[in-house]
Amino acid sequence: MFFPGKTIGLELFQSGVSFVMAGGSKSIPHIEKYDVVRLPKDVIKPSLKEQNIIEPLLLKEAIASSYDRLSTRNKRVSLSIPDSAGRVMLVELETPLKNKAEGIDHVRWKLKKSFPIDLNEVHLDYQVVRQDSAGAAMVLVGLVSKSVINEYEDVVCELGLEPAFIDFTSLNLYRLFSSRLDVQDHLTFISLYRGSLSLLIFQDGYLDFSRNKFLGTVVSDPARLYREINSSLVVYSDAKGGWKPRNVSYYAAAEEKDILREMLLEVIGSEPVLMDTDAITNSSHQQIDRKFIPDVLSALGAASRSLR
Fold first, then answer.
1. What pLDDT is attached to residue 113?
2. pLDDT exceeds cutoff 60 at 161
3. Is 194 among the domain residues?
4. How far is CA 130 from the centre of its chain?
5. Which residue segment(s) compose the domain that 207 sits in?
6. For residues 280 and 30, is the Cβ–Cβ distance under 8 A?
7. CATH (domain of 114)
8. Does residue 1 lie within any of the structural domains?
9. Same domain assignment for residues 50 and 197
10. Sign of the torsion angle spanned by Cα atoms 275, 276, 279, 285
């Protein structure tokens, strides 16, 4: 079976893989088909510097079998990899830049004294978040070790697939919800997904704060979740002269959403808004077992990058 014009997202996570074939539009993607393979042990151990894929044969077998069940000839996939495999941060560039290459060099120079690995061995890219009339800019930087990114690319390419885009799990999750969130100029979006806590704060329609922290399982340690959320918001508030969060939205899987809600309610003092997934379930062209909904979100967000 061939699905013309459809795009494919593939998420590689610690204990499995998730494929989504998507249709619709970039802002309102829907699932044509999906497949999830959960493995009995971790095949990936995300790390900034160390080897990430610890069970390459198991991972390749899972990818190959899952892809076959999509019944498509499309080989181009948008890849979602664990947040802890790299770093995402906001960086201020004070001087105007002539081109992208000069911008990358400038970012490397700004980070070289504070980053724990040789930046010459890092794949780095950025996106301009905002820019003033003098040319100074705030940019969102994503970076990952060349050896680490090669691991993920190689395991996909060896199966005859072609990585079209590569991005981090939490960013692809946000991408999936962004069309519903972008209508607000002032917004805080917090997610707890695949063990990572992600905080994004937008002011006047621009991203102004970004933090991602791997916490692992938080059900048994809600105090740590509270500390991480509170400390991040306090740091930002102090930097912004007493800023108070408003329009707070959040996402977490069923087993963690109540804990995240309780922590947010305690920290911000008002009811946060849960990003529901009913629209995704209801618009899917393949009936979705609800227990798999969390497993397909980042892959769907990745697939949406190639939609129009």
1. 75
2. yes
3. yes
4. 20
5. 180-274
6. yes
7. 3.30.1490.300
8. no
9. no
10. positive
47 vs 215: CA distance, rounded Å: 14
pLDDT tens digits, one per residue of 168-182: 999 999 999 998 887
CATH number of the domain where residue 212 is located: 3.30.420.40
pLDDT single digits (tens) 2-45: 555 799 999 999 999 999 999 999 999 999 999 999 999 999 99
DSSP assignment letter at 169: H
Under DSSP, the state recorded for 271 is P
Q: How far apart are CA 61 and CA 29, in angstroms?
A: 28
Between 115-129, 167-181, 192-206, 265-279, the lowest mean confidence (pLDDT) is in 115-129
C-alpha dist (Å) from residue 236 to 19, 205, 304:
36, 17, 31
Give domain status of residue 226, yes or no: yes
Question: Taking the complete model, does pTM exceed 0.85, yes or no?
Answer: yes
- Asked if residue 159 and residue 79 are part of one domain, the reply reads yes
> Does 2 map to a domain?
no
Mean residue pLDDT of the chain comes to 93
Other C-beta atoms closer than 10 Å to the C-beta of 101 total 9
18 with 75, same domain: the answer is yes
Q: In what order do the strands lie in the sheet with 196-203?
A: 206-214, 196-203, 187-193, 248-252, 273-274
